[in-house]
What does this fold into?
Amino acid sequence: MFKKKSKSDSKPKESWKVLIVDDEPDIHTVTKITLGRFEFDDKKIEFLSAYSGSQAKEILAAHSDIALVFLDVVMESDDAGLLVAQYIREELKNTFVRIILRTGQPGQAPEREIIVNYDINDYKEKTNLSSDKLFTVMYTGLRGYRDILSIENARAMLENHRVGLEKVIDSTASLFRIRSLDKFANGLLVQLASLLHVDKNALCGETSNCAVKKVNDNFEIIAATGVLQPTVGVTPDLPENIIALFNRACAEQKSILNAGAFVGYFPTTNTGINLIYLERVGQIDALDRQLLELFSHNISVAFENLALDKEIFDTQSEIIDTLGEVVESRSKEAANHVRRVSHLSKALAEWAGLAEDEANQLFMASPMHDVGKVAIPDSVLLKPGKLDASEWEIMKSHVSIGHDIFARSKRPVLKAAAIVAGQHHEKYNGKGYPNGLAGEDIHIFGRIVALVDVFDALSHSRCYKEAWPLEEVVALLNEEKGEHFDPKLVDLFIENIDKVTHIMDSYPD
Ligand code: C2E
Ligand code: SIN
Ligand code: SIN
Ligand code: FE
Ligand code: FE
It folds into this structure.
């Protein structure tokens, strides 16, 4: 984005290009001989020759870096040279090249208007081609060209600054609208990659670009592209070279550019340090560095704001987790059951296309699906074998008890918890309890948790049953597709079974 794409590409490197336009070959010869050893700013002259107006136009169109043109007026027509001048300024829009008109007839000066309009820099009579005169014309012409180029380069630099600043402001503005830390960090990776000229292909390839949060001496991944993407949300084994760079940035308390890699260091006052690692960073110039610094400052502020949001979210989650654990510990289910149900429900919600805040509500509410079990006596809850009919009636009441605990709350998360607790044993075919709801009359939260709860209950052992192998659990999901479970959800769940098992493995009993 900030790559210099300016007229500086056309700046002469070893020589100045000078175009001689004249239908008389002798004029070419004399000019070249006279100026053969001319140098300006330690650079020699490279002559180009055109013998007509039309040939001149072709050469000018092909060479945007011609410094100076000696231009005959009368060639194939009386005004052929003037048409070339017009072509240069108006069609090629080349305002850099210096134009020296040369007339064959003494006293036949071009009109003032033409000199002004086509920015003609000088005109000379061809009869007056002494080497002194030519030298002076050449010298002032090239000096003018050089000065114009340097002004143009400065202008292009300013333009790059402006474009760069706008990009930083736009990036920050769009990032500030994102209210979740992981999405924010993801956007940040993309925006930084663009500021740092990271090879676009690198973003999806075998790279380890990531955003992490420093927790004690560990780095927790909050966003990633490339090979680290599947590790988001779990504690990964980061490659040692990346850990070393993170530690160095923390020790030096600043961002680092190191052999094509960028390590961004974003401290916040309350919630610790966020770091970014980007590979295959392109050429970084002074301007990029300044922009990066500005961007980084804004990013730290944004992290700070997000951290406050996250603090509230974490507090809520912790309360809910604790509640869930109370339940699960009473029924001797491992505490990780609620975590698995929580993560799997959120994941399934996302696969089903639910909005982000709904998926987050479900993440917090789903661990409470069995909260009503606190009211079930141990003799029933912990019975090692099959329940009899009256025990089963008692057991089923965990659903309405759970629903009633949350039903009066107006908080979205607790309303979601009431739905989940009250509907997680309804079945898609209408044969579930407590109300025999069918199909989409069961809230999507209820349908999701029904599937996830059974999947997890079957995959692990209970006081009354052994754990089932994955194939058999999947077979049951398929058998119950459209019966116990929403068929669309079964398909989504099985399509994503690799991610499911990854979550399961992250929270073992
Ligand atoms: P849970 O252990 O959390 O099981 C949740 C759901 O997973 C069950 O809901 C059921 O749909 C499914 N599930 C669990 N184990 C099996 C199984 O071996 N086969 C099949 N096909 N499905 C299974 P459900 O049936 O409404 O039970 C609700 C709760 O009642 C269970 O929660 C558990 O706490 C209790 N429960 C159910 N059956 C028994 C039992 O035979 N003995 C004891 N002690 N408790 C039971
Ligand atoms: C049971 O009757 O024990 C199980 C009921 C069910 O899975 O819906
Ligand atoms: C929805 O109800 O939002 C679609 C998800 C589903 O029913 O499987
Ligand atoms: Fe239940
Ligand atoms: Fe459960």
